[in-house]
UniProtKB/TrEMBL annotation, chain A:
Identification of the protein by name: MerR HTH family regulatory protein
Highest taxon of the lineage: Bacteria
Gene3D superfamilies xrefs: 1.10.1660.10
Pfam family membership, one: MerR_2
Automatic annotation (TrEMBL), chain B:
Coiled coil: 7-63
SUPFAM superfamilies membership: Chaperone J-domain, HSP40/DnaJ peptide-binding domain
Name assigned to this protein: Curved DNA-binding protein
Lineage: Bacteria, Pseudomonadati, Bacteroidota, Flavobacteriia, Flavobacteriales
Taxonomic source organism: Flavobacterium xueshanense
Keywords per UniProt: Chaperone, Coiled coil, DNA-binding, Metal-binding, Repeat, Zinc, Zinc-finger
Keyword NAD in record: no
Source organism superkingdom: Bacteria
Any one GO biological process: protein refolding
């Protein structure tokens, strides 16, 4: 329980509707844990949630847009990791 | 301290309307927002610049002051004095994206601080700020698991660096970032490793590669040689008739596998046969005889 944050606490803090979190969950961008009748999110997910909230509030990106952006960011991350691996491998052939 | 052309930064004309400035700002913010450009220092810098430009141009008072004094900003102090004598009516403008808090010396000198509060990026932060650090290590240092004390924001943090860390690898240390008031979780510390290799071994993930010089006679007739591995020496048996460029694999003599204690990659040695030079007359004679034997 200690790593779980009640969703209403986050709603108050970020000034977003509960539906924002449920929509993110429906989109597969967020995992909501339900214990008895209360809904929580894992504290490790807060970093990503804050990113989503910033995109939503500051850049006026809707939930579908956030999904697209996150998918692309994941692809960029994978490509960057691949690039690092390839750069390291390239060193083998450099004097 | 150099003058900053905020109109140029927002790519708008000096006669741009409020709506045009807002539009230009939002367009550039979408392009350079740090959340959309992770680990991109240039984008981060550009985002700060456009925020600063917006901070000035989207506020009536700031824009007027900037337009009036602009390149003669050193005289802005006089403007301030005269402003204090007037009644301040407020500006009623939108704030912006927070901007990351870092404003240029030019801005600080002319405006003192952000009108809309500034501070960290984003409208609210429940979780503490994440810290990023870069750690330079030698390949030899990451051959073994060891502890290291880092100073992050004035605080000493002792971390364990597991053997086998790769160049460019990033590790997350949960809860070692910034704190926030209000009971939110602490941020994380992200450490990116730069592993420099000044050894004769080349590394590809867990495998190591090296070249071993082999004298002609051992290559021809076979024999035993001693070769370096990363952590010592090893005796090798060379087969008769070994060709130049022959590769041998020394199992588990490579680099430690990350977070798999006691497991290692392989070491690949490539033989480079050394052809004797400056032959004596006797040697020339014997090699000629050998050559004749081969061709007859």
């Amino acid at each position: 329980m200690e790593n779980l944050i009640p969703i209403p606490v986050l709603c108050d803090y970020y000034e977003v509707e509960l539906s924002f979190f449920t929509n993110l969950s429906d989109m597969g961008l967020l995992e909501i844990k339900t214990i008895e009748t209360s809904q929580y999110i894992d504290s490790d997910a807060v970093y990503e949630i804050e990113k989503m909230i910033r995109m939503h509030q500051e850049l006026e990106v809707n939930i579908e847009g956030i999904d697209v952006v996150f998918n692309l960011l994941q692809k960029i991350d994978a490509l960057q990791n691949e690039l690092t691996t390839l750069k390291n491998r390239l060193r083998l052939y450099e004097s | 301290m150099a003058f900053i052309d905020y109109y140029k930064i927002l790519e708008v004309d000096k006669k741009a309307t409020e709506a045009e400035i807002k539009k230009a700002y939002r367009k550039l913010a979408r392009k350079y927002h740090p959340d959309l450009n992770p680990n991109d220092k240039e984008a981060e810098k550009k985002f700060k610049e456009i925020n600063e430009a917006n901070e000035v141009l989207s506020h009536v008072e700031n824009r007027k002051k900037y337009d009036d004094y602009g390149e003669n900003w050193q005289h802005a102090e006089e403007f301030e004095k005269s402003k204090q004598q007037r009644q301040y009516h407020g500006n009623g403008q939108q704030g912006g994206f927070g901007g990351g808090g870092d404003f240029s010396d030019f801005f600080e000198s002319m405006f003192g601080g952000p009108t809309s509060g500034g501070g960290g990026r984003g409208s609210a932060q429940f979780k503490g700020q994440d810290f990023n650090a870069e750690l330079h290590l030698e390949l030899k240092e990451v051959y073994t698991t060891h502890k290291r004390t880092l100073t992050i924001n004035g605080k000493n943090i002792r971390i364990t660096i597991p053997a086998g860390v790769e160049n460019g690898q990033q590790i997350k240390i949960s809860g070692m970032g910034g704190e926030v008031s209000g009971g939110g979780p602490k941020g994380n510390l992200y450490i990116t490793f730069t592993v420099e290799n000044h050894t004769k071994f080349k590394r590809d993930k867990n495998n190591l590669y090296a070249t071993v010089n082999l004298d002609l006679y051992t290559a021809l007739l076979g024999g035993e040689i001693t070769s370096d591995t990363f952590d010592g020496k090893v005796k090798l048996t060379v087969k008769p008739g070994t060709q130049n460029g022959t590769k041998v694999k020394l199992k588990e003599k490579g680099f430690p596998i990350y977070k798999k204690e006691g497991e290692f990659g392989d070491l690949y040695l490539t033989y480079q046969i050394q052809i004797p030079i400056n032959l004596s007359e006797k040697e020339k004679e014997l090699f000629t005889e050998l050559a004749t034997l081969r061709t007859s």
